[in-house]
Structures are given as structure tokens and as C-alpha cells.
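REQUEST FORM: STRUCTURE PREDICTION
Request ID: SP-0412
Submitted by: Lab K.M.
Chain count: 1
Length (residues): 105
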Amino acid sequence: MKYYSVAEIDIVDKGWIPAYVRDVTRLVEQHGGRYLARTSNVEKVEGERKAPGIFLIVEWPSRDAAMAFYESDAYRPYRQARMQGARNEFALVAGEDVGGMARMP
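STATUS: Completed
RESULT:
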């Protein structure tokens, strides 16, 4: 089953961004991930919270692949830099329909 990393990022210090984008893109792809969205073009449609500065969606072939990336020694310094330089909401979402009605790939 596919899994999706979904992140809302509000940047407070831009210093970490160039190395993160350059190097983490490659790390994500090496672990089987595929970027579906990495954008600041977020249009708020409903809800109380403000739209994040950056919205991210990465598709993974499995939960194991996503967690192998997230917990890897190679990603650790970039994760720490992101956590220090931004306010983050980060979730791992199963690619399933709990209602069983939608056709899922």
C-alpha cells in the first residue's frame, strides 16, 4: 500500500532551505519517494487554521520506505535543521479508503 508524507511548514529562518531542497530531494528519490507537491501556492478553502507557508506531499511505495527515509542517518541533520528553522506539522497517511467505496490505485 502506498503512503503519503503530508507536511505543513512555516519558515522562521531561511538558512537551512538551499541545502535541504538540494540534498533531501535526492534522498527522498533514493528511498522510493516521489514529490507530488512542494509549494507555497496554497489556497485556503475552509477551516480555522491559516494556510501554511509551504505545503508538501510525497508519495511512498510503502510505510517502510517512508520510515526508512525519515529515520535514516543521511536525513537526520536535514530534519534537525528543518525543525529548528521552521514550525512543522508532519503526518504519514495511508493510501487507503476506510469506507471501501473509492477506487484506489
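NOTES: The chain has a mean pLDDT of 95.
Reviewed by: T.R.
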